[in-house]
Amino acid sequence: MRVFGIDCGTEFTGYGVIEVDNEARMPRLVHLAAGTIRLNKKDRAPQRLAQVYAELTAMMALYRPDVVAVEEVFFSANAKSALKLGQVRGVALLAAASSGLPVAEYAPLKIKSAVVGYGLAAKEQVQFMVTRLLELEDAPESPDAADALAIAICHIHSAQTLALQGAGR
After folding, report:
1. Which CB contacts under 8 angstroms, 24+ apart, belong to 24-33?
2. I need a surface site. Which of 72, 93, 140, 153 has the fewest CB within 10 A?
3. Separation of alpha carbons 125 and 83, rounded Å
C-alpha cells in the first residue's frame, strides 16, 4: 500500500509518500518522498490555492498512491485562520478526488498517538519518531513534511489494525 499524506497549512503545506514493504521478513515502512509547498504571502488567495492544487496533483500523478490521508479539521479560536485552513484543505481533497483517489481523514490526536504514542506530543517529538520509524538519516526538511509523513504512517497503522481485526473474525 502506498499512501500520500498531506499536512495542510496556509503558508506551508507538507506532503509525504510512504509505502509498506511486505517482502521483508518483518513488514517495514519505506519513505519515498517528502516536501513542502511554500506559498507566497504576497499572492492572493486564489493564486495560492491554485498553486497547492497544481503541486499536489502533480505529486499524486508522479507517485501514484493508493490512498490520500489528510488531517481532520481542528477547531481554532481564530475563525479567520480556520476558514483559510479550510480552503487549503478543500483544495487538497479536490486534488485527491480529481486524481481518482480515496481519502482517509484522521484527528490530530490519533495521528500523534499512532506515531509517538502520545496524543499531545510536540512537533519535535513527531519529527523525531517519523525519522526513526522510516529509518531516515536526517529529519524531514520541515515540520510540515514530517507531519505529512506522520499522517501517512497513521493511515498505514490504522489499515493494518483493521485488516488484522477483519482476519480474526
Report:
1. 27/160, 28/135, 29/133, 29/134, 29/153, 29/156, 30/134, 31/134, 31/135, 31/136, 31/149, 32/2, 32/63, 33/59, 33/63
2. 72
3. 28
The catalytically annotated residue of 66, 71, 124, 138 is: 71
Distance, CA of 23 to CA of 25 (rounded, Å): 7
19, 55, 144, 147: which one is catalytic?
A: 144
- Record the pTM: 0.93
138 catalytic? Reply is no
Catalytic (active site) residue 144: yes
User: Which of 7, 19, 55, 147 is labelled catalytic?
Assistant: 7
Residue closest to 103 by CA, chosen among 63, 59, 71 = 71
